[in-house]
Design goal:
This is Tripartite-type tricarboxylate transporter, receptor component TctC. Keywords: Signal. By secondary structure, the protein is of the alpha/beta class. 41% of the residues are buried. The chain folds into two domains: 163 residues, D-Maltodextrin-Binding Protein, domain 2 (3-Layer(aba) Sandwich); 113 residues, Periplasmic binding protein-like II (D-Maltodextrin-Binding Protein, domain 2, 3-Layer(aba) Sandwich), CATH 3.40.190.10. The strands form three sheets. A six-stranded mixed β-sheet has the order 2-1-3-10-4-11. 45% of the residues lie in helices and 18% in strands.
């Protein structure tokens, strides 16, 4: 038996090497075991906006059905403020274990990186995209009593009286502001931007006739009630819920597409089996007639797809909005 110091050293090295070699396998086994038992307690779905808005409504629709599919409650946690940045910043500090999710949006995850000079999170590195839920196209709307019956009416009036036609928004850098800025660039019109502290007050003033128009994502209930008139949809094709409302492209403004998108995200580093489980369940939920109809009634176009596709889409949107925000002139310190 060789008990020399050299032999003992070699033996300790061999044991250490084997242990190190086993570490990846142990980690994979632990991750798989964790995913197999997932979830065994309630899941929190962070909405970085106030209750009642589009993000909140969509989150509650998905959360209710996801909870039923997983056998654990999905609790919506509203954390509004700073254009969605407060709730999103809190979310990225959560554990990457699948028990805290985020309803990411085009505002927080695509626009804000260019809109805010300082951002409390990295729009790419801090997130694990799970699934692209839906896209809600902007719709050009005017008050029911407005003399404008078509997009061409708006364009002719704006050309005849430069700087007289105004449009409202939820604030500087909001989806309504950026869509209005895109319309100005596409047509050369001189429109006056009137920012509000939220889309609710802006919509109220629009319906009261204090504003001429908005290019909004949350107008569907008012369109259906008859208090607002829809003139154009900023999407590649007409919406099934508004089959008689033409797109901007159909009315001569090619390539005019503006929308808000929504998708489930997990913190960076969330185990792949958990991400895939969530993706599979939510894809199935989006295909149910009940959920698909509720989202379509809201004016949404249902998406779905793989985590990889959503990751690529979200990254491309950051680049796309960089130029849009620059053209709008909106910057928030």
């Amino acid at each position: 038996m060789n008990n020399s110091p050299t032999h003992a050293l070699r033996r300790r090295f061999a044991v250490a090497f084997c242990a190190a070699a086993l570490l990846p396998a142990v980690a994979v086994f632990a991750s798989a075991a964790h995913a197999a038992s997932y979830p065994d307690r309630p899941i929190k779905l962070v909405v970085p906006w106030s209750p009642g808005g589009a993000t909140d409504v969509i989150a509650r629709v998905i959360g209710q059905h996801l909870g039923q599919a997983l056998g654990q409650p999905v609790v919506v946690d509203n954390r509004p403020g700073a254009g969605g940045n407060i709730g999103t910043a809190a979310f990225v500090r959560e554990k990457a274990d699948g028990y805290t999710l985020l309803m990411g949006t085009s505002s927080t995850n695509a626009v804000n990186p260019s809109l805010y000079s300082r951002l409390p999170f990295d729009p790419v590195k801090d997130f694990e995209p799970v699934i692209h839920i839906a896209t809600v196209p902007n719709i050009l709307v005017v008050p029911a009593a407005s003399p404008f019956k078509t997009l061409d009416d708006v364009i002719r009036a704006a050309k005849a009286a430069p700087g007289k036609i105004n449009y409202g928004s939820a604030g500087s850098g909001s989806s309504q502001h950026l869509a209005g800025s895109m319309l100005v660039k596409a047509t050369g019109l001189q429109l006056i931007h009137v920012p509000y502290k939220g889309s609710g007050p802006a919509a109220a003033d629009l319906m009261a006739g204090h504003l001429d128009l908005m290019i909004d994502t949350g107008s569907m209930p008012h369109i259906k009630s008859g208090t607002l008139r829809a003139l154009a949809v900023a999407a590649p094709r007409r919406l099934p819920t508004l089959p008689n409302v033409p797109t901007f492209a159909e009315q001569g403004i090619k390539g005019f597409e503006a929308s808000a998108w929504y998708g489930i995200m997990a913190p960076a580093g969330t185990p792949a089996p958990i991400v895939q489980r969530l993706n599979t369940e939510i894809n199935a939920i989006l295909k149910t007639p009940e959920v698909a109809q509720r989202l379509e009634d809201f004016g949404a176009v249902v998406n779905g797809g793989t985590p990889q596709a959503f990751k690529a889409f979200a990254a491309s949107e950051i680049e796309r909005y960089r130029q849009i925000v620059r053209d709008s002139g909106a910057v928030i310190d």
